[in-house]
Specification:
This protein is mainly β and 110 residues long. 4% of the residues lie in helices and 56% in strands. The chain is built from one helix and eleven strands, in the order E-E-H-E-E-E-E-E-E-E-E-E. The radius of gyration is 14 Å and the shape is globular.
């Protein structure tokens, strides 16, 4: 589980490696947000690959009493070898926008 503390992504060593280039639908990562101000927001994950290609992924959102859980089902088109840079984006209508800090994940070369 990747914890969101303020705007920081706290990525444990167990969550840092997300698989190998070409893997598809075998890994997921979850993000936990405890900020009640963001409970009504919609979330997307921005992914930047080593070649500077940027993708946007819709995240599945579950709201519990005291937190939000966002789930990312990792597809082969989301990843490329070495590092991925990720950033959460949250939207409430068209007026309010929130961003997390940028985090990095590792992808192995297959």
């Amino acid at each position: 589980m990747i914890k969101v503390n303020g705007r920081s992504l706290i990525i444990s060593s167990a969550d840092e490696f997300i698989g190998f280039d070409g893997d598809n639908k075998v890994e997921t990562r979850q993000f936990e947000i405890n900020n009640p101000v963001l409970f009504d927001f919609d979330f997307k994950l921005e992914i930047k690959k080593q070649n500077d290609q940027i993708g946007i992924v819709d995240l599945e959102k579950t709201v519990e009493a005291d937190k939000i859980i966002l789930t990312w089902a990792i597809l082969k088109e989301h990843i490329s070898p070495q590092y991925l840079y990720i950033q959460l984006r949250a939207f409430s209508g068209s007026d309010q926008v929130w961003h997390s800090e940028v985090g990095s994940l590792n992808v192995g070369d297959s």
